[in-house]
């Protein structure tokens, strides 16, 4: 008689010092729950009432999160047992079996819903429908994973991950730009009760649990939930100077007490906060959930109330300020957050740091929240890209425009201050207590032509588009062209910038060009080349300018798909026309070379040589070749191992053709650091 398979116990191997939590960088969290990051394998062990028989026994793992778990929403997960683990999906594999014990490796996709999951195991016989469910009464916590390339929050720098995800203390800057003060803050994201408080905040928001897979969504919700303005959030803002029925915003030094108090009272807003407290608590919550985050201070921070994207000061006929119109303000300093993520919802090039502001100032879509706003969009004045770019743009780079009332009641501009706003934007440096100035990430240098272009581009989308004079004429065009199939990886990249003057007058312009490395997710990694080109055009003249990016400048910088973005901006001197162009280009990868050896006859062994030269100056790790040829060779993998920088590997494949005619032997290279490498050989096979 068969004994029904039952699970007696499950060990999630969740101790802080064990392999799971160490590998997942969650060993700092308090407590002994299993805390893992998505997109990464973890282990568990089970004890059964008898040895497991793969032919007749079935085991399923189930995870559920939220009040109404649904498979379709990714909140009810059924994990099958498989023979081979593949990336990008939920599955489990038995890695070890002795007597009644089995050890499992479990994979999760990099877009799994983040949160607290209940866990059960179901076992049954293949022929028997009745199942035994074992509920070990243990939870599994799943967090965002900045260490995983496929996760939207992937951050490709270990020192930065240590700072922006794992550092539980920091510095927050305040004061004035001439007298910058710094205070140390305990973020305490690993402290007892903080992870629970963060999940409590997510539950209290009205976001469905399925929304928790998307970090854009999560930071938007957290930005609204940190302030009380419309959703019983964590903190009450108070700028009155009277804090007698609570704690003065200046008195806090840590997020821990605030978050634990909010959680323990069932969501009673904590009194009181001002901008640095809102920002610090946001840093704690987002770092706790696994999103790289930092607190950022902007000195001379504008507050644009009428979305004109300018900070406006109104005077009457006698140049006396008109108080009731002067609602735009400039704060001495204002603190918000940057968090790091790709932006698949925007055109390529806008990923990376995103500004998020939890201080209640203006409503966004009816709620007091702000962001995520791409820093690259802010810097370029691309204020039409969501979320809330106009507001942050105005905070750091609006012009202060002084208007005087005319006798007929209309207003004229009398003065523009172009450098009044957005100075010394500061955050704690990576790995030290120094202040890092990151103004350059938010705006081009003050007074530079690129900065003026950004301000004028932005204001065209504001409520007063006519503030800056429109160009007299738009008769010059610029485009970027590429020869043939484009530049190859490992050699200098050449492009042509083509400028045409379509007018009957001469035209002059200065073009600013910048090349930046880009992840395929559209996140710009860093600028590697900047130039200025002076262009002088005769009437109706067209010019082609050679632009070269030397190999030395990009060799150590490339990432995954080896893409770069070239940005051009400039202005025509005579007409004030703005010139702008962006082009994404890729560095092409080498081919695999396949050379047939010996004569090709049905039933007779022959071989082919596969040659690959690593075009990069670094070692490629864990290289595999996949080889297949219909009628020649069945598909299989060849493990090559590591291939040193610029070195060549040659392999010989032996096979016996089974079909006559023209056959194709196809090979491709499988390696994380270099994609899109493949080759083919045509082999004419003769009859015996």
Automatic annotation (TrEMBL):
<dbReference type="Pfam" id="PF00868">
    <property type="entry name" value="Transglut_N"/>
</dbReference>
<keyword id="KW-0479">Metal-binding</keyword>
<dbReference type="Pfam" id="PF01841">
    <property type="entry name" value="Transglut_core"/>
</dbReference>
<keyword id="KW-0449">Lipoprotein</keyword>
<dbReference type="InterPro" id="IPR023608">
    <property type="entry name" value="Transglutaminase_animal"/>
</dbReference>
<comment type="similarity">
    <text>Belongs to the transglutaminase superfamily. Transglutaminase family.</text>
</comment>
<comment type="function">
    <text>Catalyzes the cross-linking of proteins and the conjugation of polyamines to proteins. Responsible for cross-linking epidermal proteins during formation of the stratum corneum. Involved in cell proliferation.</text>
</comment>
<keyword id="KW-0417">Keratinization</keyword>
<feature type="active site">
    <location>
        <position position="275"/>
    </location>
</feature>
<dbReference type="InterPro" id="IPR001102">
    <property type="entry name" value="Transglutaminase_N"/>
</dbReference>
<keyword id="KW-0564">Palmitate</keyword>
<keyword id="KW-0012">Acyltransferase</keyword>
<feature type="binding site">
    <location>
        <position position="446"/>
    </location>
    <ligand>
        <name>Ca(2+)</name>
    </ligand>
</feature>
<dbReference type="InterPro" id="IPR036985">
    <property type="entry name" value="Transglutaminase-like_sf"/>
</dbReference>
<dbReference type="InterPro" id="IPR038765">
    <property type="entry name" value="Papain-like_cys_pep_sf"/>
</dbReference>
<keyword id="KW-0597">Phosphoprotein</keyword>
<feature type="binding site">
    <location>
        <position position="399"/>
    </location>
    <ligand>
        <name>Ca(2+)</name>
    </ligand>
</feature>
<keyword id="KW-0808">Transferase</keyword>
<dbReference type="InterPro" id="IPR013808">
    <property type="entry name" value="Transglutaminase_AS"/>
</dbReference>
<feature type="domain" description="Transglutaminase-like">
    <location>
        <begin position="267"/>
        <end position="360"/>
    </location>
</feature>
<dbReference type="InterPro" id="IPR002931">
    <property type="entry name" value="Transglutaminase-like"/>
</dbReference>
<keyword id="KW-0106">Calcium</keyword>
<dbReference type="GO" id="GO:0016020">
    <property type="term" value="C:membrane"/>
</dbReference>
<dbReference type="GO" id="GO:0003810">
    <property type="term" value="F:protein-glutamine gamma-glutamyltransferase activity"/>
</dbReference>
<feature type="active site">
    <location>
        <position position="334"/>
    </location>
</feature>
<dbReference type="InterPro" id="IPR050779">
    <property type="entry name" value="Transglutaminase"/>
</dbReference>
<dbReference type="Pfam" id="PF00927">
    <property type="entry name" value="Transglut_C"/>
</dbReference>
<feature type="active site">
    <location>
        <position position="357"/>
    </location>
</feature>
<feature type="binding site">
    <location>
        <position position="397"/>
    </location>
    <ligand>
        <name>Ca(2+)</name>
    </ligand>
</feature>
<dbReference type="GO" id="GO:0031424">
    <property type="term" value="P:keratinization"/>
</dbReference>
<dbReference type="InterPro" id="IPR014756">
    <property type="entry name" value="Ig_E-set"/>
</dbReference>
<dbReference type="GO" id="GO:0007399">
    <property type="term" value="P:nervous system development"/>
</dbReference>
<dbReference type="InterPro" id="IPR013783">
    <property type="entry name" value="Ig-like_fold"/>
</dbReference>
<dbReference type="InterPro" id="IPR008958">
    <property type="entry name" value="Transglutaminase_C"/>
</dbReference>
<protein>
    <recommendedName>
        <fullName>Protein-glutamine gamma-glutamyltransferase K</fullName>
        <ecNumber>2.3.2.13</ecNumber>
    </recommendedName>
</protein>
<keyword id="KW-0472">Membrane</keyword>
<dbReference type="InterPro" id="IPR036238">
    <property type="entry name" value="Transglutaminase_C_sf"/>
</dbReference>
<feature type="binding site">
    <location>
        <position position="451"/>
    </location>
    <ligand>
        <name>Ca(2+)</name>
    </ligand>
</feature>
<dbReference type="GO" id="GO:0046872">
    <property type="term" value="F:metal ion binding"/>
</dbReference>
<comment type="subunit">
    <text>Interacts with PLAAT4.</text>
</comment>
């Amino acid at each position: 008689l068969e004994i029904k398979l039952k699970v007696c116990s499950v060990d999630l191997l969740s101790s802080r010092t064990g392999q799971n939590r160490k590998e997942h960088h969650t060993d700092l969290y308090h407590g002994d729950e299993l805390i893992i990051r998505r997109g990464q394998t973890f282990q568990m062990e089970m004890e059964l009432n008898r040895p497991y028989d793969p032919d007749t026994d079935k085991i399923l793992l189930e995870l559920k999160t939220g009040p109404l778990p649904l498979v379709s929403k990714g909140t009810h997960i059924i994990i099958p047992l498989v023979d081979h683990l593949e990336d990008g999906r939920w599955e489990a594999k038995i890695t070890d079996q002795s007597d009644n014990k089995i050890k499992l490796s479990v994979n999760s996709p990099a877009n799994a819903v983040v949160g607290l999951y209940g866990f059960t195991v179901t076992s049954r016989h293949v022929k028997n429908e009745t199942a035994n469910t074992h509920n070990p009464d243990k939870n599994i916590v799943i967090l965002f994973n900045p260490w995983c390339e496929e996760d939207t929050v992937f951050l490709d720098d270990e020192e930065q991950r240590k700072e922006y995800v794992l550092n539980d203390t920091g510095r927050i800057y305040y004061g004035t730009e001439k007298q910058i003060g710094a205070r140390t803050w305990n973020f305490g994201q690993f402290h007892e009760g903080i992870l629970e408080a963060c999940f409590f905040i997510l539950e209290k928001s009205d976001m469905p649990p399925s929304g928790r897979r998307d970090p854009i969504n999560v930071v938007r919700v957290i930005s609204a939930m940190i302030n009380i303005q419309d959703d019983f959030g964590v903190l009450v803002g108070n700028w009155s100077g009277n804090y007698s029925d609570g704690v003065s915003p200046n008195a806090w030094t840590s997020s821990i007490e605030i978050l634990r108090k909010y959680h323990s009272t069932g969501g009673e807003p904590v009194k009181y906060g001002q901008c640095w407290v809102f920002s610090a608590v946001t840093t704690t919550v987002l770092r706790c959930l696994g999103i790289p985050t930092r607190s950022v201070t902007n000195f001379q921070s504008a507050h644009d109330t009428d979305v004109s994207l300018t900070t406006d000061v109104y005077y009457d006929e006698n140049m006396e300020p008109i108080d009731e119109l002067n609602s735009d303000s400039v704060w001495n300093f204002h603190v918000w957050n940057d968090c790091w993520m790709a932006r698949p919802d925007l055109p390529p090039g806008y990923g990376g740091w995103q500004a998020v502001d939890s201080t209640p100032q203006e409503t966004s879509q009816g709620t007091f929240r702000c962001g995520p706003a791409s820093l690259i969009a802010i810097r370029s004045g691309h204020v039409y890209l969501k979320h809330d770019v106009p507001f942050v743009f105005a905070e750091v780079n609006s012009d202060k425009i002084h208007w005087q009332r005319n006798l007929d009641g209309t207003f004229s501009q009398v003065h523009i201050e172009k450098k009044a706003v957005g100075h010394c934007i500061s955050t704690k440096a990576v790995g030290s207590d120094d202040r890092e100035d990151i103004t350059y990430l938010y705006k081009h240098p003050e007074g530079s032509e690129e900065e003026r272009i950004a301000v004028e581009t932005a204001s065209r989308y504001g409520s007063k588009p006519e503030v800056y004079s429109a160009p007299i004429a738009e008769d010059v065009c610029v485009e970027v062209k590429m020869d043939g199939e484009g530049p190859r990886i490992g050699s200098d990249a050449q492009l042509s910038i083509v400028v045409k003057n379509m007018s009957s007058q001469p035209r002059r312009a200065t073009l600013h060009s910048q090349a930046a490395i880009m992840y395929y997710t559209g996140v710009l990694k860093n600028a590697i080349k900047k130039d200025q080109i002076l262009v002088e055009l005769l009437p109706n003249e067209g010019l082609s300018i050679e632009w070269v990016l030397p190999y030395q400048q990009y060799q150590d910088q490339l990432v995954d798909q080896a893409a770069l973005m070239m940005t051009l901006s400039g202005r025509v001197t005579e007409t004030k026309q703005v010139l702008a162009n962006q082009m994404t280009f890729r560095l092409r990868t080498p081919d695999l070379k396949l050379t047939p050896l010996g004569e090709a006859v049905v039933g007779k062994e022959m071989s082919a040589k596969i040659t690959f030269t690593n075009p990069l100056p670094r070692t490629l790790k864990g290289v595999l070749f996949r080889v297949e040829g219909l009628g020649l060779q069945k598909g299989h993998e060849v493990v090559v191992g590591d291939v040193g920088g610029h070195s060549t590997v040659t392999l010989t494949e032996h096979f016996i053709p089974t079909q006559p005619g023209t056959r194709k032997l196809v090979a491709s290279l499988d390696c994380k650091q270099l994609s899109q490498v493949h080759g083919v050989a045509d082999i004419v096979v003769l009859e015996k």
